[in-house]
Amino acid sequence: MNNAPDHVPLIRTTRGGFPECVHVGSIAVVDADGRLMAGVGDAHGLNFTRSALKPLQALGFVQDGGMDRFGFDSQMLALMCASHGGEPVHVEVAQRILERIDARESDLRCGCHPPSFYTATETSIPPGTRYNQLHHNCSGKHSGFLAFCRMHGQPLAGYLDPDSPLQQRVRANVERFAGQRDLPMGIDGCSAPNFAMPLSGLAHAFCRLATGESPELAALAYAMKRHPDLVSGTARGDLMLMAAGAGDWVSKVGADGVQAIGIRSRGIGIAIRVADGNRRALHVATLAVLQQLGLIGDPAGTPLARIDQRVIRNYRGTEVGAVEPTFTLPRLA
């Protein structure tokens, strides 16, 4: 049975004025009641959320009083929602979380990869650079998972087991926001369970997050908006988006072409999926959605200029093509 969303063309690239690539996907814009205000493609289709799920993965810890239990601050909570760059400040906050709950780097089960900072800044890793699991972009989320287990007296070793109390709590929260049960589950790049949910449900979750529908959601949104550099990192998209929103937007990217944004002042949520996972296409689609909703003008001269990738240049800096949105966001009755 094919349950793939019915995506449509969103972005095309041209070279010398001639079409070269087409990126398909879907877009959902919902109001505070979850009603679809505007959409392109399959706004209700199921898509894996990847790291856009992180605020909901941290929600149970906040709901159960974990912040007060361990004396966590907003930096720690922001990092629990982060796909960070492995910069020194990120590693330091992750280490503080582990120290506060009497855990160690070896208790993490996220694995290890080179700090994302170097990819984001297009710089080379200095010879002799050493890194461990704390540098993993998901180390904050995993440290938060361990904190939940420690708070409830659960063993740390099995915290990624889909049947563990922690992951069952995450599933329950995700299904509540998705508005349906039995969501498809897969294993994310960091080894944590992840869920596919309706794109409209992801958009609604971020609307509820941005508007602070509950004290717990308000705490998560406050931490993310106060510390976008921890949620993201140098030269990263979520940092640029939340800087442009100036405290009004809460934003979280997910791997392989997912972007979710909540706009507090408008009471709306936005979810975008570029099906082939192309990051350049996702950035252009995101800016086009924000422009068509009247939320931004020309990105030039704003923090969003960093992710405005509509011009294709070769390695000599010569303009050789363009990345163009092919959609018009229809307003629905």
What is the gist of this entry?
This protein is 35% helix and 20% strand. With 333 residues, the protein is α+β, with helices and mostly antiparallel strands. The longest helix has 14 residues, at 165-178.
Question: Which features would summarize this protein structure in a list?
Answer:
globular; 12 helices; 3-stranded antiparallel beta sheet; 333 residues; 8-stranded antiparallel beta sheet
What does this structure look like?
With 333 residues, the chain is of the alpha+beta class. 35% of the residues lie in helices and 20% in strands. Helix 1 (54-63) runs parallel beside helix 6 and helix 3 crosses helix 6 (139-151). The model has no long low-confidence stretch (mean pLDDT 96).
Q: Identify low-pLDDT runs.
A: none
Terminal Cα span = 32 Å
Task: Tell me the overall shape.
Answer: globular
Query: Main β-sheet, in a few words?
Result: 8 strands, antiparallel
Give the fraction of residues assigned to helices: 25-40%
**Oligomer classification:** single chain
Report the order of strands and helices: EEEEHHHHHHHEEHHHHEEEHEE
